[in-house]
From TrEMBL:
Main location: cytoplasm
GO cellular component: cytoplasm
Protein name (Swiss-Prot/TrEMBL): tRNA(Met) cytidine acetate ligase
Role noted for this protein: Catalyzes the formation of N(4)-acetylcytidine (ac(4)C) at the wobble position of elongator tRNA(Met), using acetate and ATP as substrates. First activates an acetate ion to form acetyladenylate (Ac-AMP) and then transfers the acetyl group to tRNA to form ac(4)C34.
Keyword Cytoplasm: yes
One of the GO BP terms on file: tRNA modification
Originating gene: tmcAL
Reaction(s) catalysed by this chain's protein: cytidine(34) in elongator tRNA(Met) + acetate + ATP = N(4)-acetylcytidine(34) in elongator tRNA(Met) + AMP + diphosphate
Domain of life according to the entry: Bacteria
Family, per entry: Belongs to the TmcAL family.
InterPro entries xrefs: Rossmann-like_a/b/a_fold (IPR014729), tRNA(Met)_cyd_acetate_ligase (IPR008513)
Alphabetical UniProt keywords: ATP-binding, Cytoplasm, Ligase, Nucleotide-binding, RNA-binding, tRNA processing, tRNA-binding
Location of this chain's protein in the cell: Cytoplasm
Length: 376
């Protein structure tokens, strides 16, 4: 048995630790391993990772994962289906037999019914609802019964869909999510705080019991990253690209370049910019992802060239499980690279660019000088 986890761990807190412990318990009972694929510098909701991927991956192994692989930027900063598709592709290539995930609703039996409805939909109703200004999440809720207010449940469906469409033999292990809501930003007495609340209150003593001593120490010594710091760079980039240049950016469509350009002329800060661009149809999270693509100059051509890669970086591994890397490479579905060097770096051009932008803004490290984290 090999159990997979898709994660951001931004940062890794008590709720994440509980999920890893559940996976660890099942794996140990079946002589198995736990493998995680994790977003590295930016996240699915278009947010900046609070600290770099090596720090968060190290904590994941300390908590019980055997191996942590980097989810490439184009998989990390993507709408739910692409995020799930790339994550599942990597984990299947790493040999997982089961996928464990936290969800507000453990009853995933309805996924097959939702999937069947989607396959039978001719697209006309979807187009009609799009014209009313509804976003994709709202339409999925109306047409297929996919719960719009339970983001982890919706993402779990994307995992199911990715597994189903690729005809993979991976079993789902849902774990009931407890504690604070995913987007809750305030500190309150809970079984588990949300990652959002921890990021928003990083210097509050009340968050300390939700983080390990090691994770807290790493957070306190690093330069904490936030979206607010992106604004001057985004403004420069948007004005430099102009509407024609913005139109070439990945995930920009249907005249969105006009809203973006006009908004940056009025916005006074990052939140202003997002809110001025967002509409009923284009959620704040969608806009945040697009802004990251602008910041990193990720074009539609970049997506075509790099999304299908089967080369992936290893961020951290438990010392006595390092042989898993060789085993996965021998199997040949994906290629794992523990270290970047002049021979393999051409496989990671997009992610090296993204890493160096993140490092310039926040961490002052060089991805080429970072070694795989080996945890004893």
């Amino acid at each position: 048995m090999r159990i997979g986890i898709v994660a951001e761990f931004n940062p890794l807190h008590s709720g994440h630790r509980y999920l890893i412990e559940c996976a660890r318990k099942i794996a140990d009972e079946n002589n198995g391993e736990v493998i995680c694929v994790m977003s590295e510098f930016f996240t699915q909701r278009g947010e900046v990772a609070i600290v770099d991927g090596y720090i968060r991956a190290k904590e994941a192994v300390r908590c019980g994962c055997d191996l942590v692989l980097a989810l490439p930027y184009l998989g990390s900063v993507a709408y739910g289906d692409d995020f799930a598709k790339k994550s599942i592709e990597i984990l299947f290539g790493a040999g997982i037999t089961h996928l464990i995930f936290g969800t507000e609703n453990e009853d995933v039996s309805m996924f097959e019914e939702i999937y069947t409805k989607q396959q039978n939909e001719n697209g006309e109703e979807y187009k009609k609802l799009l014209k009313t200004g509804s976003n994709h999440a709202k339409i999925n809720s109306i047409l297929y019964g996919l719960e719009n207010n339970n983001p982890n449940f919706s993402l779990a469906y994307s995992y199911y869909k990715a597994i189903r469409e690729a005809n993979l033999d991976i079993k789902l292990i849902p774990v009931k999510r407890e504690g604070q809501g995913l987007n809750s930003g305030d500190v309150s007495e809970q079984v588990h705080l949300s990652a959002t609340a921890i990021r928003n209150n990083i210097n509050d003593e009340k968050i300390e019991k939700y983080l390990s001593r090691e994770m807290l120490a790493d957070l306190r010594k690093e330069n904490i990253a936030s979206e607010a710091e992106l604004f001057p760079y985004l403004k420069y980039k948007i004005l430099t690209l102009g509407k024609v240049g913005i139109e070439k950016i990945y995930d920009v469509s249907e005249g969105l370049e006009n809203r973006i350009y006009e908004a940056v002329l009025k916005a006074e800060n990052y939140n202003d910019l997002v809110n001025l661009i967002a509409t009923k149809r284009y959620s704040n999270k969608k806009i945040q992802r697009v802004l990251l693509h602008i910041l990193t100059n990720t074009t539609k051509e970049n997506y075509k060239k790099y999304f299908s890669t089967n080369n992936f970086r290893v961020l951290a591994v438990k010392k006595d499980k390092a042989a898993i890397i060789r085993e996965i490479n021998r199997d040949g579905k994906i290629n794992l690279h523990p270290l970047l060097n002049s021979k393999n770096s051409m496989n990671f051009e997009q992610d090296i660019k993204v890493a160096r932008i993140y490092e310039f803004l926040f961490s002052k490290k060089d991805v080429f000088r970072e070694n795989i984290q080996i945890i004893y």
